[in-house]
Amino acid sequence: MGSQTLQILRQGVWASVTGGWYYDPHQNTFVNAFHLYIWLFLLCFPFTLYMVSAVSCVFIFTATVNYRLHHALDEGEVVERHARCGEGGGAGTEGIHQGTATRQEDSNEPGAVFARGGAGGGVCEEDSSDQSELGGSSSIHSSHQLCTDSSSTSSNTSRSTRTSPEGRYAALKARHAKVDCKEGRERAGKRRTSRRTAGSGSAKTHARVLSLDSGTAAACLNELNKLNEPHRLGAPPGPRPLTTSKSDLEAKEGEVLDAACLMGRASQLESVTRSRNSLPSHALSDALEAVARGKYTRTSADTHFIQQAMFGANLLEQQDVDLSPELQEAPLGQSHTAAAAHKAKQYYRFWLLPHLWVGLHFDRLTLLALFDRNREVLENILAIVLAVLVAFLGSLLLVQGFFTDIWVFQFCLVIASCQYSLLKSVQPDSSSPRHGHNRIIAYSRPVYFCLCCGLIWVLHHSSEFLGSAHFSLYGVVITSSLLFSNVRDLVIVFTLCFPFIFFVGLLPQVNTFIMYLFEQLDIHLFGGNACTSLLSALYSILRSLVTIAMLYGLCYGSLKESWDAEHIPVLFSVFCGLLVAVSYHLSRQSGDPCWFSVKPVFICSDLIVCILIAVLFFAIHVSTVFIALQPYLSYVLYGLVGSVGLLTHYLLPQLRKQLPWYCFSHPLLKTREYYQFEVRGAAHVMWFEKLHVWLLFVEKNVLYPLIILNELSGSAKQLGSLVITVAGLKLLRSSFSSPTYQYVTVLFTVLFFTFDYRDLSETLLVDLFLMTILFSKLWELFLKLRFVYTYIAPWQITWGSAFHAFAQPFAVPHSAMLFVQAIISAVFSTPLNPFLGSAIFITSYVRPVKFWERDYNTKRVDHSNTRLASQLDRNPGSDDNNLNSIFYEHLTRSLQHSLCGDLLLGRWGNYTTGDCFILASDYLNALVHLVEIGNGLVTFQLRGLEFRGTYCQQREVEAITEGVEEDEGCCCCEPGHLPHVLSFNAAFGQRWLAWEVLVTKYVLEGYSITDNSAASMLQVFDLRRILTTYYVKGIIYYVIASSKLEEWLANEAVLEGLRNCSERNYVDLDPTFNPNIDEDYDHRLAGISRDSFCGVYLSWIQYCNSRRAKPLDSEKDSALVILCYGLCVLGRRALGTAAHHMSSNLESFLYGLHALFKGDFRISSVRDEWIFADMELLRKVVVPGIRMSLKLHQDHFTCPDEYEDPAILFEAISSHQKNLVIAHEGDPAWRSAVLSNSPSLLALRHVLDEGTNEYKIIMLNRRYLSFRVIKVNKECVRGLWAGQQQELVFLRNRNPERGSIQNAKQALRNMINSSCDQPIGYPIYVSPLTTSYCNSHGQLRHILGGPISMGNIRSFVVSTWHRYTNITNII
For bias kind Basic and acidic residues, which ranges apply (predicted)? Predict the structure, then answer.
């Protein structure tokens, strides 16, 4: 705990203050000293006031060198210095020689370096490879060393060495060492940088230490490794395994080897000879003599000799590895051998000029510790430009005297932190949304610094050079010099507080800020919707600006015409009609730029409707109704808006809630499904739902456009063209898209500026424009305060840890600060999150409505995205969460068709952008986040939770599913309650929750899931015998029903394989057959004979044959019966093989059954190889047979004796084949069947999760499910999400039982935190952003009609004409 706290203080707090510099004890002195000097240079240099050019040069040089160094490590060469040790005549000489330079792999992709050198009487070779991996900041260093000393102090010693094979080998080695060195230097001079290969990039070579004496072990291992060296064997680049097979050696017979190539192999043979004394020494001597002559041609005898040597080496390695298992993965560089003292010095070539290079004596890990890596050239250019801008703007503000005294040092500290973050950024940053290195966060500080400095400079000059024109709003002069000066000073203070601001994490990364800024501008200025991505935000703001530009010209021209008291210019009426039509069209568009290509029919319908709207409202406006009927028309419109809005958005939703006004115990307006225990069909459309739809239609398509046009006509002479255009577009778009709370804004604005403060009014059009922004912020403040008070209420606080108990009383004195934070967070739409889940709240950084800054979607693991080997061996994706995620995916598809229509029907109550709902069923618990709400469309994201969650999740699920109608408490007693009314305790408790139950019987199409334990269904032998019997009958059914039956009976290969089965007395005596399981087992013959098989299954074969269109011969000796017999024996043998021939054991039987169910058939008997003549026999006969037997076995429990009749069994199989999908859950066909709404599905599931190993039979039936809809305070969701992100990413709290995820029923803390993106949360499914359209809802389309198109208009006219003619004929 102490080390983690120290790490947070060092890498979090201190690094956030300095911009990324801190002392790292894991790095060497050079790295820490270099970081310190760089930071001090950036801190002190601004005092000279000549920092722009110097900083520019420093950053250009640093970025260029950093980029070139990484390029050198990626594509450069590695060079090793080799020590040559020679002794002759009693004198020792030492030399340094540069060996062959070869390509060094990326540190992420370890590679080996091989160098060769030597001269004189002695040779000391060192081959070392530096392998490093950047996974988990770990590196692997392995070195292979060989040292062979040869001394010749006297002639006697020389003669003695020449008389033995070892001596002759050493002499020849000394003789050719000089030649090798010369050739090595020539090749090193010619060799240039080579590209990486896939083989070398993926190979990770580890030396193994053998249990020998140190000298022999080192020599043997290094000589073995030399066989893999490309420059010695003439092999392609990259490491390759040692080839020891006989076929490989015989294939190289006749290969011509030079002296250098044979030296390595001779050394290998000599090492093995010394270690085991099992190889003839004269053969080695002859080979070495051939080397001396220059060429050596391999013969078959030599091949046999080398094969024996290789076999001995392999045997040696195997024996020693077995003796020393703990040393198998140990690098050889760590072995305590004599050669370890002579380590080669390794460095990289860094080319300064085409013929000039220097050596780099460090690897990529050191370089990454020194500087952050910029992968692209544009990133380096951007970093340099930002550093220069920071220096320029900082010097500009220093020169102009904005800072004095100690604030100069503080400002220089800010400059240094901004520039240093471009070299070595804070990782992880407090506002980083992801684990690991974040490349974008490095640019945040300099970008914000440039924005603030630019804003300071603009405000300063604006305050000094203001013109005579002044702009005031509600009596406040906006363009006053004092106001600009105060704002400038505020920005200066904000800039000086950068270290604290970035430590707390109040500013997001740059792309998040841009998305947030554009989204807020589009929503509050132009009436747009929320955005789903950065590209969507750019597209939305540009779309709004283009629309404003086009409408502005028309409005400007209309205002230039003459106006009188009784007439409105026609051009202004045209502008009003187009404004309504364009606003309607924009409200119907999604923020996705690809929206046009997705819904062309939607666009065609809108085009027709927009033309009708433009003509209709032009006619209304040009009729001067807005002038002649004043002021009575305004009062009538305001009264209608107030009454319709109150009825539509307050009374009807409250009457339909589960607990209306938290007083009544049941809805006052009930649906037909309310009292149904199990829903049988789609939800019935009630009269109040139709009323809600029509009231909403009239409100947003008639009343609000008329009110806004009325205000446009009355305010046109007093306002400018731009204000009229922006305000009119914003009000109309927001009324079309989200009219839920518009009536409150309209009523308050009219009452406040008409009766209370008439003199302050800036015309009702501007008042409405500003009040919509103000009310949205006030509503957000109300939700934040409600979340805070609900969360920290002392009578329901749940302390998840000791820190929570400490923070509860500590937060009481800071209530005023909490209130200020709530106001600030409401103004900027930032989450207010509980710190570590406690009662202390802090403001987080701004986020868009989408909240999560990366697009995380669940990737389901199945057979379409896993390797075949892993499917057969490890069965990936077999955990419950992965398999159950498909049901949430199907739920998302169902919501895509019905959500928008259900929202318009009022089935989810009132809703706005960003609202969060929880759908709760028997096993499904999903959080639905409404991201974008338009006119007739809703974009949402669904997050599915675990079926069987943690204890905390189960407690919160119980809280949202249990009823409070039976509660009779009042304080400490239980006096009861009035009929249909909640008790005092229940009513009080419901008001102190961050959620509320809206609907208890929300009907949605889905799948009911039934899972039964396969172990209990197959526990006894009788049940396994029934399954095997149905398995055999299933095979017979599918082979006879197949259209390829006649082809199979005529196949020569099949007939040849079944020849033995055609014998009258043939018996299959395979031990896998079991008398307890196989019904046709012949006890007398101890196997399955054809007679015993026919005695049980011949009648079934003949009945299935009779149901064919063209029956075949089905007598006992017919080819059809023989084929059925062979297939049934093969199928049962495959089942026994998969069960490891232990079918009597339940676990083995279930394992084999599951293997066959998923299609893993392993033909192990020679008698069954005839099946390979046509694999369709397996795919279309045996596999469906084993799967159908599982369903028939289930049916056996409901009607045990029904399938004894062949006709009933045949019809059952035929019916299941048509209506039931039986597949393995990892099969892509399973997912396709679920998403295509197949009526029934069945699967055998093998669950391997957290030590559990069980088999389940999963049965799915498509039907209508009943859900509870719970609306959650969206500020509660945003706050808890932000708190989890900060705690896990920045504070690095990885405790799975941390206090912030403990259950808190009043806020559903565990369920909300579980729905975060992985790895912060643990949802089993997160859907992509999905858009639902109202036209896909059949019931809503029946009420309002479908989309308007030319075809629909023609059909309506034709049908109307036919009805008219029929009526006239009757008359």
Answer: 177-187
Sorted by sequence, the CB contacts under 8 Å of residue 815 that are 6+ apart come out as none
Q: Where are the alpha helices (DSSP H) in 444-569?
A: 444-464, 481-496, 498-504, 510-526, 534-559
| 164-181 confidence digits (pLDDT tens) | 444 444 544 454 444 444
What is the C-alpha separation between 1209 and 44, in angstroms, rounded?
91
Which of 269-273, 506-510, 780-784, 861-865 bottoms out in mean pLDDT, i.e. has the lowest? 269-273
For the stretch 665-707, pLDDT in tens is 999 999 999 988 888 888 999 999 999 999 999 999 999 999 9
- Cα separation, 445 vs 482, in Å, equals 29
Q: How many CA atoms lie within 13 A of 1341 on its CB side?
A: 11
Token couple for 1074: 């079991």
Per-residue pLDDT at 87: 38
Copy the structure tokens of residue 584. Answer: 């309607």
Average pLDDT of the chain, as a whole number: 78
Q: Is the peptide bond before 631 cis (omega within 30 degrees of 0)?
A: yes
Which amino acid is it at 811? A
1092 with 1057: CB under 8 angstroms?
no
pLDDT in tens, 725-761: 999 999 999 999 989 999 999 999 999 998 888 888 8
Encoded tokens for 1296: 């799975």
pLDDT at residue 271 tops 80: no
Helix (H, G, I), strand (E, B) or coil at 1124: helix
Tokens 């051939």 locate to 290
Contact 1222, 1190 (CB under 8 A): yes
- Check if the beta carbon of residue 995 is closer than 8 Å to that of residue 1272: yes
Q: Cα 123 to the chain's mean position, in Å?
A: 56
Q: What are phi and psi of 1152, to 5 degrees?
A: -65, -40
Q: Which residues lie across from 1143 on neighbouring strands? A: none
Q: Under DSSP, is residue 501 helix (H, G, I), strand (E, B) or coil?
A: helix
Q: Are 748 and 771 in contact (CB under 8 A)?
A: yes
Which residue has tokens 């419950």? Answer: 880
Structure-derived torsion over alpha carbons of residues 599, 604, 605, 608, reported in degrees to the nearest 10: 160
Handedness of CA 1176, 1177, 1178, 1182 (dihedral sign): positive
What's the CA gap between 890 and 1222, in Å, rounded? 18
pLDDT tier at 970, thresholds 50, 70, 90: confident
One-letter-per-residue 3-state SS of 867-899: CHHHHHHCCCCCCHHHHHHHHHHHHHHHHHHHH
What percent of the chain stands above pLDDT 90? 37
Rg of the chain over all Cα atoms, to the nearest angstrom: 41
Token digits of residue 526? 């132009």
What's the whole-model pTM score? 0.79
